[in-house]
Structures are given as C-alpha cells and as structure tokens.
Specification:
Strand content: 15-25%
Radius of gyration: 15 Å
Mean pLDDT: 96
Order of helices and strands: EHEHEHEHEHEEEHE
Strand order of the largest sheet: 3-2-1-4-5-6-9
Number of domains: 1
CATH architecture: 3-Layer(aba) Sandwich
CATH class: Alpha Beta
Number of strands: 9
Helix content: 40-55%
CATH topology: Rossmann fold
Low-confidence stretches: none
Shape: globular
Largest sheet: 7 strands, parallel
Number of helices: 6
Amino acid sequence: MRIFIAGASGVIGIRLLPLLVAAGHQVTGMTRTPAKIAGLEALGAEPVLCDVYDADALRAAVVGFRPEAVMHQLTDLPDDAAKLPEAGARNDRMRLEGTRNLLAAAEAAGAERILAQSIAWEQPGDRGVHTREFEDSVLDVSGVVIRYGKFYGPGTYFDTEQPSPPRIQIDEAARRTMAILDAPAGIVEIVE
C-alpha cells in the first residue's frame, strides 16, 4: 500500500515507518523540520518537508505521492511535559486547521483511507470540544480515529515510568497500529 504519514518524525511516526517499510508498504513521511529529513530517509521513507498549515504545498505533496492511505500522526506538543498546559492552543490548531488541510489534500489525491491519531481519555473544557470536532471531521470522511492511551517508554513524557490508564507502551502502540491499517471506518482504541 502507498501510505503518506503526516507527522512521521514524531514519537509514534518514527516507530511506524520501519514497520510499514518492513511490511512492504511504500511510505512517504512528512515533517516540517529540515533536520529530521535524513532520519526519515534512514528509516526507509521518502521524506517530504512540508508544513500542514501551507495548504497548497501540502496538497501538492500528497497529490504528488498518490497515496492509497493517509495517516495523520500530527501533534504540536512540547518536548517538555511541564510546558503542556501552554501548548493546548497550538495543538488544538493542529487538530482543527491542520486536519482540515490534510483531509482536503487526501481527498484531492483520491486517498481511499484516512487514519488519524487521537486520545483515549477525556479532556476538560475547550480541549475536549476541539478533540471531538477533530474526531468528527475524520469520521465524516469515513476515516478511522485511533484513540491511543498515554504513551510511555523511550522518547515519551513517561520515559521510565507508567502513566495512569488509559496507557500504552509506545512500541506496542506502533505494532498495534499496523494491525488496523485495514480497519473499517470508526473509532479504534489502542490501550493496555
């Protein structure tokens, strides 16, 4: 399958890429960070440097690859968990505007499948409202919403300890994502 991964250089994207390539999929991995291009190539992906907020460039990148599936693993979260409260608005923008742009690009490319990262816990207030809006936009195009538990393991906010449930070890989350590539439209939870 031809798979376009937006957010390929993120904590789960870098684990998914080698699994997808090893399974024989042709993968393009998108990042907005120039320094991460070489890492995506090393994992076997065709790298694309693009910002999801540049709708025209994103459309050209996705249409140019002609994917059968588009996987949305985009977030805009800080590396330091202590800064999460101040990152909410940026991540909401990613989930709403970024998702709109990615879904439009996938439609223009004729992608048959959309899979999008979400969370398996409720957020209060506007965060929860924005998460539901994001999920509804994916479901409205017959996509698959992947509700992950809180990631733990190397490179996550919980590097050496486990968070409260719902949770999932990051490498296990990537392996279980492989198993849902052909899941029917709807919501899939990946939790322990």
